[in-house]
């Protein structure tokens, strides 16, 4: 992996296996000093190696049991403004710009079908959005993971 040495990779593999491991536990597992692990963790964090820890929070207990993906088609010159407005919708938990026929793939959580209809309507009401296609997520079959890449 570019930018990470063997110690960094070992630390990342250990964190992928146990994301809640303390610095002391990681130091023990990797046979390193606590100070070395702490310094490496700080450097990795400062370099942007870690994604948002919000990713680990389950929206279901918060009252949002349904998840959907909204494919958004926009007028290209208005893409930036559309993204800014979509980001203001609290139920939007992630969005990706895409190449191809769809411009944005927006991941949303909702309370029920009526809530999803409302959210889709909010997206459609944004100036520059031409149309949407919404797909209800039936279940996560492969959760977010990097372990196999780290093991490679």
UniProtKB/TrEMBL annotation:
The keyword NAD does not apply. InterPro entries: AsnC-type_HTH_dom, Dimeric_a/b-barrel, Tscrpt_reg_AsnC-like, Tscrpt_reg_AsnC/Lrp_C, WH-like_DNA-bd_sf, WH_DNA-bd_sf. SUPFAM superfamilies: Dimeric alpha+beta barrel, Winged helix' DNA-binding domain. GO terms for cellular component: cytosol. Residues 4-65 form the HTH asnC-type domain. It holds the Pfam family AsnC_trans_reg. The keyword DNA-binding applies. GO terms for molecular function: sequence-specific DNA binding. GO terms for biological process: response to amino acid. Keywords: DNA-binding, Transcription, Transcription regulation. PANTHER family: LEUCINE-RESPONSIVE REGULATORY PROTEIN (PTHR30154), TRANSCRIPTIONAL REGULATOR AZLB (PTHR30154:SF34). This is AsnC family transcriptional regulator. It comes from Agromyces ramosus. The lineage of its organism: Bacteria, Bacillati, Actinomycetota, Actinomycetes, Micrococcales.
């Amino acid at each position: 992996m570019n930018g990470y040495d063997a110690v960094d990779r070992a630390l990342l593999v250990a964190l992928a296996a146990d994301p809640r491991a303390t610095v002391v536990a990681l130091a023990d597992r990797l046979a390193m000093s606590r100070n070395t692990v702490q310094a490496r963790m700080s450097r990795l964090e400062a370099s942007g190696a870690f994604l948002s820890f919000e990713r680990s929070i389950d929206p279901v207990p918060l009252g949002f049991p349904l998840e959907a993906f909204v494919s958004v088609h926009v007028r290209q010159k208005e893409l930036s403004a559309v993204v800014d407005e979509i980001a203001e919708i609290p139920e939007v938990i992630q969005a990706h710009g895409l190449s191809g026929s769809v411009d944005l793939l927006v991941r949303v959580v909702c309370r029920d079908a009526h809530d999803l209809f409302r959210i889709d309507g909010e997206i459609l009401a944004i100036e520059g959005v031409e149309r949407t296609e919404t797909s209800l997520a039936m279940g996560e079959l492969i959760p977010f993971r990097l372990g196999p890449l780290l093991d490679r």
